[in-house]
Amino acid sequence: MKGIARSLMTTLSTFSRKPVTRDYPNVHKPLPERDRAFPLLLWDQDIDEPFCTGCHACERACPVECMTVLMKDNPNHKTVGGTSTRRKIIDKFWIDYARCMRCNICVEVCNFDAIAMNNTWTGHEMSVHDRKDLVIDLQGLLAQSRAGAIKEWVPVLGQTNE
Amino acid sequence: MTTSLWGMDINVWANAAIRLQIIVLVMTVVVMGLIWAERRILGRFQQRIGPQKTGPFGLLQSVADAVKLVGKEDLRPKNADPWTFELAPFLVFIPIFMGFVVVPFIAGWNISVLELGLLYFVAISSVNIVGWVMAGWGSDNRYAMIGGLRAAAQSISYELPLVLSLVSVAMFAGTMNLDEMVRQQAAVPYIVWQPMAFAIFFIAALAELNRAPFDIPVGESEVVGGPFVEYSGIRWSMFMLAEYAGLFIMAIIGASVFLGGYIWPFGEELGRGWQLMLISAKAGLIIFVVFWIRASLPRLRIDQLMGYSWKVLLPLVLLQVLVNGLILVNGWSEVILGVTGLAGVVALVTITGRAANRPRSILARPAAVKVEAA
Questions:
Q1: pTM value surpassing 0.95
Q2: Is A12 in Cβ contact with B357 (below 8 Å)?
Q3: Under the phi-then-psi rule, with left for phi > 0, alpha for psi from -120 to 50, and beta for the rest, what region is A113?
Q4: What are phi and psi of B372, to 5 degrees?
Q5: pLDDT on residue B363
Q6: The domain containing residue A107 runs over which residues?
Q7: Of the given ranges (A11-20, A143-152, B157-166, B238-247), which has the lowest mean pLDDT?
Q8: Is the Cβ pair A19, B47 closer than 8 Å?
Q9: Nearest C-alpha of chain B: how many angstroms from A34?
Q10: With bands split at pLDDT 50, 70 and 90, how would you rate the model's confidence at A45?
């Protein structure tokens, strides 16, 4: 009887507690600042161009070879009457998110802090019907940072880590 | 022959038909509500939310389920006995539905006031065992057969304590008219004078309704759903409808006979709406405890189940009937009844506790003993 009474009290105390269920697709739990989804490129808002110079460092370091990088001369460079100090700039960039294993090495090796791991929910909810749709081009990689819809946890160029 | 309905004089049969229609509608809605409530409450007992997507708070979940069940194909196994198989759901459902005839919802709103209402209810509610056994036999499935036989054994065993606990109240009330019984409780509900009868009624009702922890006829882990294994679609949903309608009617009867129905504690002058709310609250309390017990206790073994009925409940309830008779014949005070009833509850709790806590003694099998000796 003690056991029966105790089981009844246990369930009753559970009943009085708040359910642990999260209403996931409607309510997103806040992600930690250093959450690591897929890598994306950052946009230099001051000069209005990507930070990336297309130096291939990330491409060479990538253990799963999911990146393709092409470089070009910067049409906005000071020598040709522009505002930028970047002599070279990224021309084309693809990352195959289906292949990426989110190891963070590309972020580690980048000399310009131009690539970062996405720390928002957009980086997680990426289900598509076709695997090919997971190969993201330059526009797609830059879009989120360009719109300012990314939290900064990697020090962007010009800022210092504390 | 005419009776009054909403102040109009109307033919007796037409009156009964109209009231039955109302009961059908109310019962269907209540059953859907109960299924929803069970899923929500059970969810909270497990720290979940339960259905919440369909309609506000998931209220339309039962409607969605009903639509799905109606749309499903009505399958019948090749070797099943066609008549037995197809008639069984009706035989389970109709007796439960017929029980609603005497249920005193609010003052003057039973379909018919029978002088032997309690007897009628007890008699009619036990008929549905036939349906269970038919479902078990007709399915031509071993699990269904075992489940059906278990249902029969369990229902017959627990019918006795259930009936006798109601009988002890009827002795005290001096009537079997349910409406009259409710009216007698205007001052004090019968649970005060007959607490043990209520405890036994509640336990036996759990078993009659095949609710946990007495759900061995339909235990998924033992007989994969018992007599319902082969049923699908609309016929299966009739079993479910019968189960929850049975829960509803049992809760209303328990609330009426023991908890003072629509009358205690506010008297008969209460408005009809308030009476309805009162009886719903009482029945709701009983139903909540049923859900609570389902969330808490594991299923009993079949020998424990039978032993508990025959060795514990039946002697105690017989004792209660005996004590009732003694006190009523000698005209002793009602207080003695209450005291003896409480003593009975203590005895019930003690015996149940001792049975539940008894250490398991594993008998040495003769073969094992022999090997040891050699």
A1: no
A2: no
A3: left
A4: -65, -40
A5: 59
A6: 32-146
A7: A143-152
A8: yes
A9: 29
A10: confident
